[in-house]
């Protein structure tokens, strides 16, 4: 049978795609091969899934689908003086976006029939009409990979504000000059915002690091309710580029009537020049920051590295948090073994569902093989436009794009689905949670267990009796005790110099800046040190008292992850990101941090009865904390609510809660009414939320109690459990033995307490939701920097600037 006859006999296996079908044509579903790879890409004309040359045969064996569209792209010579097109939207390489001057490719198409790979050229009038229609539809459709990428960009696009369409402007005679602006309430001359309702010019918000304005613009909105403001200095003839902010929506927005609204105050936008950075541009300005350059090792001759384990990850748009985290994760033996050594691509594809792009096991295996095989870690050839030849003139690699993995891991998390920057810690915890769920019932094959350990808290009541609470965690989150800095004299001298320079109106140079240096040992010690727990309800005393809490680890994981808490409250209760170095040794010993459990002679607190529970759950605001907060200018009712919400833990905790909940719609709801509403909301606790908390290592009874106390919010429920060490009563206590593990942590890996530093994730930026993440990993006897797609030998790894530190247990 000739190829054409073979094709006609299999026409029933060819489908013409509908508009709703997902068509993959840019990347193999189970490897990182593309149409530009040596073997091109094969699209299954029945399922519209794409496969590389090495994988397409597995799909034929699994599905029996014999007809494929083969796409092959080869580079073509491009003239050096090709004109650049003007961009019309903020994107790269898509219609209307920036011309990234990429090499152009010639694309060829063929119909391939399996199992013997007979080939028919396309286009051809001899092909059956159904095949021609199907191929045309596939080629004209936007690929599923591109659709997801563009939709994520559009999701973050500024929207038209409804407040702009019917904005009422007040005739008060204000005419805004073209320059020379100053805040109406202070001396600020930059970061100024023009309220479009009354023409008031006021300064912007104060940033975490103390820079920015004095909050006069937002305070004006809270007093007046006037919704829109435009940042002066961002207004030019291109009005869409102006930074317009909507306070009720708490978002940057578009104002289609901005020209009219500016004209009301005599502003001729066509003559204005840009003098201020927009909010987004201010984040990009971090590139010139000294710390930024240090973390990325900018300005240093970094030797590019290639081969197995040295593959970069393409930045998909603010995805550096994912890239840095996954590079370290796949440098661990547990994940390397599970998804690379013990499982090849064919095995993972064989057990995957019909659509392997939505299977976490498949996409993790794909990512593991992409990173660890070395197949894609090769220097990227550059086109020589004169000699029409490929030459490796720049020893850099293209990296692999983790699109399908990101889509799968973010499916249950809307924030990670976006193109916005995210917290690497939050992503790491979400990732391990998803891996654990995917391996439920198979603990022996769950690599996330290598990070899990038990924490035991000992509560010593003033009655002399004790309680033991246990929980599981993946990370050890550490406070940074600045008072333990080893260079206090140098820091004090620097603070004096800084004050002198500020008085003189001069700026400090990078080499003049001195940061506190705190030993990691001091951070670990602060975790274990005794801490007073106020308003602890004692079942022995039948009343509230002050207890002392200490903490230790019930097991030592294979990999210990330390999270440095760098956001604190400064003197004057101003929130600030700690500008501090942590001196981290290559080897640490935490043997002394192992908890001892119930000791001989210790007496456990009696179990709580229903009456005790009612009394202990009734929290009243601590008046001392309330008065301190009120003295700072906060609303009395808001302060009471903050104290109750944080269980009177302290002024700092209440302040943190206030700052993050000031704009909550229910902030003014009376506490008694709020409690009634919460009671109605949680009369039936959502079982799926209970299951989620159980998966974190909490017991079902405590999980239900926490969800009831927090209105059904999982995050608040977790905080509630951690802030109430007596919440679990005696049900969590190890009352039988001082050494035997309880069922909570019996199955966890355990061993000695000596660890070696193998990696760190560093972050620069004013918050974890902006800036940039970079990973440094100890491989093959040297430190390596993984900066998105760039991989090279590290000259000066910033061990003292880490956000997350990864340690591997040293097995004696």
From TrEMBL:
**Organism, scientific name:** Liquidambar formosana (Formosan gum)
Q: Which residues form the UBP-type domain?
A: 159-269
Q: Which UniProt keywords apply?
A: Hydrolase, Metal-binding, Protease, Repeat, Thiol protease, Ubl conjugation pathway, Zinc, Zinc-finger
Signal sequence, start to end: none
Q: Which residues bind Zn(2+)?
A: 183, 186, 203, 216
What are the GO MF terms of this UniProt record?
cysteine-type deubiquitinase activity; zinc ion binding
Give the reactions, separated by semicolons, that this protein catalyses: Thiol-dependent hydrolysis of ester, thioester, amide, peptide and isopeptide bonds formed by the C-terminal Gly of ubiquitin (a 76-residue protein attached to proteins as an intracellular targeting signal)
What is the name of the protein in this document?
Ubiquitin carboxyl-terminal hydrolase
């Amino acid at each position: 049978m000739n190829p054409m006859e073979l094709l006609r006999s299999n026409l029933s296996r060819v489908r013409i795609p509908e508009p709703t079908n997902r068509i993959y044509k840019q990347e193999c579903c189970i490897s990182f091969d593309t149409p530009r790879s040596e073997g091109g890409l094969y699209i299954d004309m029945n399922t519209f899934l794409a496969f590389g040359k090495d994988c397409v045969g597995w799909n034929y064996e699994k599905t029996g689908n014999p007809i494929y569209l083969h796409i092959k792209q080869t580079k073509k010579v491009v003239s050096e003086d090709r004109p650049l097109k003007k961009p019309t939207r903020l994107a790269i390489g898509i219609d209307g976006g920036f011309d990234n001057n990429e090499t152009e490719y010639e694309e060829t198409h063929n119909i391939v029939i399996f199992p013997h790979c007979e080939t028919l050229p396309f286009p051809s009038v001899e092909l059956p009409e159904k095949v021609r229609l199907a191929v045309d539809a596939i080629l004209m459709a936007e690929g599923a990979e591109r659709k997801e990428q563009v939709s994520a960009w559009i999701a973050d696009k500024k929207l038209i504000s409804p407040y702009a369409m019917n904005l009422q402007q007040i005739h008060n005679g204000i005419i805004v000059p073209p320059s020379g602006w100053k805040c109406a309430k202070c001396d600020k001359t930059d970061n100024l915002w023009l309220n479009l309702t009354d023409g008031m010019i006021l300064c912007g918000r104060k940033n975490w690091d103390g820079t920015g304005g004095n909050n006069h613009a937002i305070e004006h909105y809270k007093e007046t309710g006037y919704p829109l403001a435009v940042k002066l200095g961002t207004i030019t003839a291109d009005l869409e580029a102006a930074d317009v902010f909507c306070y009720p929506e708490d978002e940057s927005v578009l104002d289609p009537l901005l020209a009219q609204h500016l004209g009301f105050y005599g502003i001729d936008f066509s003559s204005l020049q840009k003098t201020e950075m927009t909010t987004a541009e201010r984040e990009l300005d971090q590139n010139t920051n000294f710390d930024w350059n240090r973390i990325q090792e900018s300005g240093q001759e970094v030797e590019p590295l290639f081969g197995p384990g040295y593959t970069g990850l393409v930045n998909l748009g603010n995805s550096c948090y994912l890239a840095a985290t996954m590079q370290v994760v796949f440098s661990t033996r547990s994940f390397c073994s599970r998804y690379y050594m013990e499982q090849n691509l064919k095995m993972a594809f064989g057990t995957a569902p019909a659509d392997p792009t939505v299977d976490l096991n498949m996409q993790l295996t794909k990512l593991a093989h992409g990173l660890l095989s070395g197949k894609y870690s090769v220097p990227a050839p550059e086109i020589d436009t004169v000699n029409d030849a490929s030459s490796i003139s720049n020893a850099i690699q293209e990296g692999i794009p983790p699109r399908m993995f990101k889509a799968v891991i973010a499916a249950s998390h809307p924030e990670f689905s976006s193109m916005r920057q995210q917290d690497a810690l939050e992503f790491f915890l979400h990732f391990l949670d998803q891996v654990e769920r995917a391996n439920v019932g198979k603990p022996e094959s769950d690599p996330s267990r290598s990070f899990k350990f038990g924490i035991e808290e000992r509560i010593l009541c003033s009655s002399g009796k004790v309680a033991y609470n246990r929980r599981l965690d993946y990370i050890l989150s550490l406070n940074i005790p600045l008072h333990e800095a080893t260079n206090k004299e140098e820091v004090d001298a620097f603070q004096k110099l800084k004050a002198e320079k500020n008085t003189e109106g001069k700026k400090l140079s990078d080499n003049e800046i001195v940061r506190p240096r705190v030993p990691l040992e001091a951070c670990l010690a602060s975790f274990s040190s005794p801490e007073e727990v106020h308003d602890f309800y004692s079942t022995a005393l039948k009343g509230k008292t002050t207890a002392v809490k200490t903490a230790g680890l019930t097991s030592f994981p294979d990999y210990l992850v330390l999270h440095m808490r760098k956001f604190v409250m400064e003197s004057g209760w101003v929130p600030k990101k700690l500008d501090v170095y942590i001196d981290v040794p290559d080897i640490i010993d935490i043997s002394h941090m192992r908890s001892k459990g119930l000791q001989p002679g210790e007496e456990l607190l009696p179990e709580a009865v229903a009456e005790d529970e009612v009394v202990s759950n009734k929290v009243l605001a601590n008046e001392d904390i309330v008065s301190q907060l009120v003295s700072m200018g906060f609303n009395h009712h808001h302060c009471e609510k903050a104290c109750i919400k944080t269980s009177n833990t302290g002024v700092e905790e209440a302040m943190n809660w206030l700052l993050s909940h000031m704009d909550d719609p229910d902030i003014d709801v009376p506490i008694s009414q709020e409690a009634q509403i919460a009671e109605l909301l949680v009369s039936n606790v959502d079982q799926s939320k209970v299951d989620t908390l159980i998966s974190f290592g909490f017991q079902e009874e405590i999980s239900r109690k926490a969800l009831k106390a927090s209105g059904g919010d999982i995050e608040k429920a977790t905080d509630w459990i951690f802030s109430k060490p007596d919440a679990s009563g005696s049900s969590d206590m190890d009352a039988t033995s001082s050494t035997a593990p309880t069922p909570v942590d019996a199955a966890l890996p355990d061993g000695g307490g000596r660890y070696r530093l193998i990696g760190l994730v560093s972050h620069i930026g004013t918050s974890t939701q902006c800036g940039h993440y970079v990973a440094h990993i100890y491989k093959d006897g040297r430190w390596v920097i993984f900066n998105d797609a760039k991989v090279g030998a590290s000259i000066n790894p910033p061990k003292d600037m880490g956000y997350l530190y990864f340690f591997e247990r040293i097995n004696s």
